Amino acid sequence: MSGRARLYEALATARAAGVPVTRSARLLDRGARAGSLADLMTWPRWPALPPDQRERVWRLTALIAARDALPDVIDGATLRGLAAAVGEDRLEAVLDLPPGGDAALPPTTTLGEAGRRIAEAALPAALATRLGHASDRPDAAHHVAAAEEIAA
Q1: Which of 63, 75, 101, 128 has the fewest beta carbons closer than 10 A?
Q2: What does the longest C-alpha to C-alpha distance in the chain come to?
Q3: What is the pLDDT of residues 36-57, one digit of tens each?
């Protein structure tokens, strides 16, 4: 993704969170605490995505957070359910990631909800405040970033 495209996505996320996007507006809005454009560029893209794409990112986030458990799944119905939830190619991409997701694998029916909780907890503090969430798992931000990359 080009730097310009990423900048536009970062600004879309800021707008979705109600953060002023111009420098002068950010300076006047003391409650925003968004920081610089460089800070905005590190924010996740999912808050500005349409609902169906956001749900896809959440499902992938849950799978990535639980990826260490995936190689142990031998039940064909479970694997088919996961592939149906995120797509076969995306499931393969998750399986190709290096180890590093030690969360429990949620049931397929609650994959999106589990991923949403992880994604919300991984928000940067300024964005979490704007969206009304607690930012208590910033260490999970790499799961969200990987999910956004695979979902694209």
Answers
A1: 75
A2: 56
A3: 667 777 788 888 889 999 999 9
Closest to 123 in 3D by CA, of 140, 135, 115: 135
What string of DSSP letters covers the chain? --HHHHHHHHHHHHHHTT---SHHHHHH-TTT----HHHHHTS-SGGGS-HHHHHHHHHHHHHHHTTTTGGG---HHHHHHHHHHH-HHHHHHHHTSPS---S----GGGHHHHHHHHHHHTS-HHHHHHHT-----GGGHHHHHHHHHHH-
Q: Which two tokens stand for residue 96?
A: 């190709």
Q: How far is CA 122 from the centre of its chain?
A: 8
Spatial separation of the C-alpha atoms in residues 142 and 127, rounded to whole Å:
16
Each residue of 71-113: pLDDT tens digit?
Answer: 888 888 999 999 999 999 999 999 999 998 889 999 999 999 9
